[in-house]
Every structure is written in C-alpha cells, then in structure tokens.
Amino acid sequence: xxxxxxxxxxxxxxxxxxxxxxxxxxxxxxxxxxxxxxxDELFEEHKDWKDDEFxxxxxxxxxxxxxxxMRLVVFLEEIAKGHGEEWAQIIxxxxxxxxxxxxxxxxxxxxxxxxxxxxxxxxxxxxLGEDEYFEKYYLYLFEIQTDIIGRVExxxxxxxxxxxxxxxxxxxxxxHQCALICANRNY
Length: 187
Fold this sequence. Notes:
Distance between the termini: 60 Å
Radius of gyration: 22 Å
Order of helices and strands: HHHHHHHHH
Helix content: over 70%
Number of helices: 9
Largest sheet: none
Shape: elongated
Number of strands: 0
Strand content: under 5%
Structural class: mainly alpha
C-alpha cells in the first residue's frame, strides 16, 4: 500500500505555496532547498510509519513544509536586521537560540571570514538597541569571554559602570578601566 503521508510535494506545488506567502521570489530556491532537506530528514525518521500512526492529520510533507517555512522566516528576519545571507544561513542552521545561537554563529563564521564575522556581530549588537558604551563592551566580551551566555548582562553592567564613573566626575580613561575590570571579572 502506498503511503499518502510520505509523498514529497512537487516543485510546482511548492511554488504555489511559496507565492501565496508573498515572499520575494529570489528566495524560492532557498525555500526549496530547505524543504528538500527537511523532507529527507523527516522521511528518514518516519519511513516505517503507517499512515494511521500520524497524529492530527500530520504528514511528512506537511511537516517538511512547515519547518522549511519556519527556517525561511528566520533567514528573512536576519536579512531584515541588516545581516548578510551567510550569517542568516548560519543562524538558521543553529540548533541553539538566543545568546547561544549568536555565540556559535559568530565562532562558526570567524573561522571562515574574520572580518565578516566582526561586521555581522556589530550588526547584531546594534539590533540590541543599547548605547555606544554597551556596544563597545559587548564586542569586547566576544574577544575575551569564553562563556557562551551572559554577554548582554555583563556588557550592560560594564556600560553602567562606565557611565556612573563619568557622572561621579571621573575621566573617561578611569571609567573605561573600571568597566574593563567588570568585563574581565568572572561571575
């Protein structure tokens, strides 16, 4: 018996679905590639399943369609923030989220292209919406800190220390040294 729950969508069906989403057509092949990868992985996981084992009307092809679209949405969100396609794809390919995704994406990209990794990290940093002092220390923490999470909090602390020292009449050099002590302190 042929399974109805494990048939790949045709490229034409995928084009119709994609076009209904009103996404720039230049990303169709990225969507198509994601769909193929997702379908193959899901098919492998469910190859021995019978149609009645799927819940709530699920099927391999529909799950692949959903995951491929979710991946494309994440990709497009990164592009909308100003990131390049290479960074966006690295983020999509991460199994991590939040700070962990940024950490691993940055370190993945830095191995391939140091300058691009720095540029993409700066773009990410600016999306956090903090001031110039936060940005300075956030970027610095990627140079010195091996902890995967905690950079945002620590950069906020460093920025606060820097600004408080200035308010207290200290010089920028002194304030910066105090902020560096914070940055280099292990929690």
